[in-house]
Design a protein that fits this description.
Number of strands: 0
Radius of gyration: 16 Å
Order of helices and strands: HHHHHHH
Structural class: mainly alpha
Length: 144
C-alpha cells in the first residue's frame, strides 16, 4: 500500500507543489483566486507531460518507491523521532527536487536570473514537500 501512496504523491503533490511555488513567487493579487487555482492545475498537468523533464522525472517515479521500501525496512526509520525524520526528509527531498527539475533549471538559465531562481526554489520546495509526504506514508504503515 505505501508504494501506491508514493506513486500518487509523486504524480499529484510533486507537480502541484512545483506549480504553486512558481505561481505564488509572482503573485498578482488583482486576479480572482479561481483563476489562480485553475492556472496551478493546468500548469501541473502540463508539467507531467513536459518532455524535457522525462529523463529525470520518470526514473524518480520508478526509483522512489523502491528506495523508500528499502528505507522503510530499517528499524531506525521507525524509531527515530518524527521531527528528525521530517527534517531529514525535507533536506534530502529538496536536493532530490533540484535533481529532478535540473533540466528546467538549466533551460531557464538562458532566460532570466529571476526565472532561474524561481525554478530552483520550486524544485527545492516540491522535493521537500513530496519526500516528507512519502516518508510519512511509509512511516505510518509500520515496519515490514
Amino acid at each position: 500500500m505505501p508504494t501506491i501512496g508514493t506513486l500518487i504523491v509523486m504524480l499529484t503533490v510533486a507537480p502541484l507543489a512545483v506549480t504553486t511555488t512558481l505561481v505564488c513567487s509572482h503573485p498578482d493579487w488583482d486576479r480572482k483566486i479561481e483563476l489562480v487555482i485553475m492556472e496551478i492545475l493546468v500548469m501541473a498537468l502540463f508539467g507531467l507531460i513536459t518532455v524535457p523533464l522525462w529523463p529525470t522525472y520518470i526514473p524518480a517515479v520508478v526509483l522512489t518507491p523502491l528506495i523508500m521500501r528499502h528505507v522503510a525496512a530499517w528499524q531506525s526509520f521507525h524509531t527515530t523521532p518524527l521531527p528528525v525524520v521530517i527534517l531529514l526528509s525535507m533536506i534530502i527531498g529538496s536536493l532530490y527536487g533540484l535533481l529532478i527539475l535540473a533540466p528546467a533549471i538549466v533551460l531557464s538559465m538562458h532566460h532570466s536570473e529571476g526565472l532561474n531562481r524561481d525554478w530552483i526554489v520550486a524544485g527545492a520546495v516540491s522535493g521537500s514537500v513530496t519526500l516528507t509526504c512519502i516518508c510519512l506514508i511509509h512511516r505510518s504503515s509500520g515496519p515490514d
